[in-house]
Amino acid sequence: MATNKKKVLFTDSMGKAGREILAARPDVEAIPFPNMAQDEEYRAILKKHAPVHATILGGTRFRPAELDAAGGMQVVARVGVGYDAIDIPGMTSAKVPVMIAGTANSPSVAEHAMSFMLTLARKGPELSALVKEGRWGDRLKPAMVSNDMFEKTVLIIGFGRIGTRTAKRCLAMEMQVLVYDPYLKAETIKAAGCEPVTSLDDTLPRADFVTVHCPKTPETVGMFGTKQFKAMKRTAYLVSTARGGIIDEKALHAALTDGTLPAAALDVFDREPPDPANLLF
User: One digit per residue, pLDDT tens: the chain, 281 residues?
Assistant: First the structure.
């Protein structure tokens, strides 16, 4: 039967509020799909329901092949702020707008970055394992002594929605906050109570924590590799809640293995879902 409803394919990871908005629209047929659907699977879903007029993505890629499979796509959206998995030039050429969630999860990611820094500084996993393994007495050994974040120096890479919120939380913990963002005026960074820096490599030796919050672009892919790790303090921690590929995972594994860095915390990987055989695991 012919229908005037618009078909919207949405990731099954979308929250309750978003689902309710779609369900309340009589002019929309909302169809969920697996959040991490891979290319062929997702294209098959698009073809099955074609024409598809809109899609709300999670971790799935969207390129001209998916656009062709949809047979009528009018808008592509993401649950989140990153759009590196979407072929922006391809969508621009096809005159299909791309939308992101803006500030929706910025506080959450900033808190997540802080939780990583606290976990690394306080040696949470190591001390938890020590207690469970019955090595209570080892908690006072020098290698197990945790670190304060008070008066430590953090270098924030990228000062957008998430980077600025992370800075506020670091300042609240009385840390010295350095910011590297070549696209912002120094006055903007200073107004936030932070110190602007113009050279990443020259600043890395100053930082006790480095936290990455820049977008993934051709300019930032591989931004952190062997050279950058060797420039950091031997006691410095690396955190990334940005995008996989900004950090060279093989180089990071080497740095963690040979003692160049003591620890790192990532929630993004170059390949997602990550390969269980990834050396970092």
Answer: 556 899 999 999 999 999 999 999 999 999 999 998 889 999 999 999 999 999 999 889 999 999 999 999 999 999 988 888 899 999 999 999 999 987 778 999 999 999 999 999 999 888 889 889 999 888 888 888 889 999 999 999 999 999 999 999 999 999 999 999 999 999 999 999 999 999 999 999 999 999 999 999 999 999 999 999 999 999 999 999 999 999 999 999 999 999 999 999 999 999 888 889 898 98
Is 36:81 a contact under the CB 8 Å cutoff? no
Residue 116: both structure tokens together: 């990583």
CA distances from 161 to 15, 166, 182, 193, 266 (A): 21, 9, 15, 16, 19
Q: What does the block give as tokens for 87?
A: 């072929």
| Identity of the amino acid at 214 | C
Per-residue DSSP letters for 200-268? HHHHGGG-SEEEE-PPP-TTTTT-BSHHHHHHS-TT-EEEE-S-TTSB-HHHHHHHHHTTSSSEEEES-
pTM for the structure as a whole: 0.83
- Sorted by where each starts, the structural domains of the chain and their CATH numbers stand as 6-99 (3.40.50.720), 106-266 (3.40.50.720)
